[in-house]
Predict the structure.
Amino acid sequence: MVMHELLLKVVVLVALLGPYHNHIAEADDLMTKPGCRSSCGHLVIPYPFGSSDSSSDCRIDRPSFIVYCDNSTNPPVPYMNDKSSNLQILDIFVERHEMRLTVWTGQECFNSSGYDASLSFYPWIFLPEFPFSSTKNKFTALGCDTLAALIDSSGEFSFGCMSSCSNVSDVSDGLCTGIGCCETSIPRNTFNYNISFWSFSNHSKVLDFNPCSHAFVAEIGSYNFSIGDLRQFTFKKAPLVVDWAIGNQTCEEAKKNNTSYMCTKNTNCNDAENGSGYKCTCSEGYQGNPYLKKGCHDIDECADPALNQCEGKCHNTEGGYTCSCPKGHHGDGKKGGGDGQGCIANPSQLMKILVCKFFHFTWTSLVKNIYYYPS
């Protein structure tokens, strides 16, 4: 009997989890075109991106959308376009239209003789299509005799910050306010940069605890300044966020050509805020990959209480849901506290409830009296 009940519970559990598992699997399958490579190491490769060893139909025919998978390592390592780019891909997000990359940090070092070229490194990055995120990144510089700048390779603009201090005791962990560490924002429409340094006295006055200046562009929150970094800096590679979009046309312009326009059914189109091009997103009530045919599928809001406001019964619909009240109640079936009216018992139903409660109370009291005060 016990074994029978256990098997019954297992069957019920599988019945409940089965549709949920299939739903998740379906969502995963819809990120990549059928027959195309869907991952490289830990990276999921969603269309319109595609692996370099897959068919050209698996991706947009643009270098920035090509994922080169270095299979010589375990696990394999993905790079943007080609391994020679040195731009390792950490994540690709379709919904947010973002890509996370790793980039080298820069440094300029000195010793007792002056400039130390063997330890100095000045990285430059060029992205032909994807701009650096102006909201997700910061330019950070470290040093006590440091002026660091990020210079556009075309020479159109430059920006940076200055960091100084005369004694290590002046510096505080976690603070980048210009004493030992400084930071500044990244402007929009930045596609490339060179990192440059200037020093007022070649670090001669702080050489015993700060022989090098360091600078990098990195995702906000990825680096936390430590006093020990002034002497020995180990943050050699930094995560960086770039924004991506389709082409260089606005939504209005792209919609004029049905052959090349990439937003599919149940999607919205938005112009890129950073850089050029347009971005497709699934309409409200849908999720998936908006660049694939039938890629945006309905969300079952009723399957997750956090996605619906129903107090009564929840009914999933295409792209949304509705609420209703059980028999004997009226209202919109939505939770109160906002615009919802909830479910209110009808007068006749309310009378039935009160009568039942009255008879239950009376009967309970009578039984107690008979039990405690027998005649």
Residues 156 and 190 are 10 Å apart (CA to CA). The chain has a mean pLDDT of 86.
